[in-house]
Amino acid sequence: MTEPAIKIVALYKFVDQPDFAVLRAPIAGFCAERAIRGTLLLAPEGINGTLAGPPAAIDALVAWLEDGNLFGGRFRDAEVKYAFADTQPFHRMKVRLKAEIVTLRAPEANPGRAVGTYVAPEDWNALIARDDIVLIDTRNDYEVALGSFRKALDPRTASFTQFKDYVAENLDPRTHRKVAMFCTGGIRCEKASSYMLAQGFEEVFHLKGGILAYLEHTPAQESLWDGECFVFDERVSVTHGLGIGEAQLCRACRQPLSPADRARPEFVEGIQCHHCAAEDNGARRAAAAERQRQIDLAAARGEAHLGEEGRAIAERRRRASKARREADRKRSAQ
Fold this sequence. Notes:
This protein is an alpha/beta fold. Among the domains are: 6-97, 2-Layer Sandwich (Alpha-Beta Plaits), CATH 3.30.70; 117-227, 3-Layer(aba) Sandwich (Oxidized Rhodanese, domain 1). Helix content is 35%, strand content 20%. It has helices spanning 24-33, 55-66, 68-71, 121-128, 141-144, 163-170, 187-198, 210-217, 259-262, 282-300, 307-333, and strands at residues 6-14, 37-43, 46-53, 79-85, 93-97, 117-119, 134-137, 147-149, 178-182, 203-207, 225-227, 229-230, 237-238, 248-249, 256-257. A five-stranded mixed sheet has the order 4-1-3-2-5. Strand 9, helix 7 (187-198) and strand 10 (203-207) form a beta-alpha-beta unit. The longest helix has 27 residues, at 307-333. The termini are far apart. GO terms for molecular function: oxidoreductase activity, acting on paired donors, with incorporation or reduction of molecular oxygen; transferase activity. It comes from Pelagibacterium lacus. Pfam families: Rhodanese (PF00581), UPF0176_N (PF17773). This is tRNA uridine(34) hydroxylase.
């Protein structure tokens, strides 16, 4: 059996690091030298990101980040999950400096100081089956639309910062004494659990490793998960065993679409879906239609379509080549 060409790592850790900005250059350089791509966030509260590259390169990166001689051991025991792909799911490497690795804008939420009770994937079913547990999906509405745990409450948030409003308007620590939460990889519900403890909730549980860990370790026949799990890369969604799901992105508005969504009459391949069909945005629709025409032409010729990132790279190369020719012309004229 051929080993997959690309290894994907999703990692995070909450750790106080006031010097976070000085890590940007060495991490970016390490990844660039090894053909690693993706996005990594650095903030005073920790590290978070998803990266992909050759398996040996990804293994070397994780070992390097956990090396106590380099970063004082701050990233040791980070939450790390792996997946594989036949092709590189990311276009470039980005290391970004942020105020938070997951944005909630609630200073009282500090998982480095207080966090809810971790629940292992193998113990999750028993917990959420209890009658005294309020189960909350902490992800955003477009993620929940693809799949969730049975009986989970959907806060219907467009961004994680709105979670605070949901808690204030719908939950009461005097009534909802035991709360269980989950998210894609564990990071959002880890911060949400810290926030809820700060609000006075008595017992707060969260799924260790998130939905991805649950889907990886729980047999499909024992699962309480329905649907697929949205992921923030070109796989779009995954299923049990972390197999690639059937969801696709609308190329116009970037919303994830299930097969049922793509069967709706509003859906036009590459141009619109039911989320954006009613929008009065002729320029975007025209651009999407042209993009789809180019994809269709490339397919008819048996060629790979460059895509937006590829076209940007080609344009940069064209400009660089033109600049070199212009410089050569000027030198010849001297």
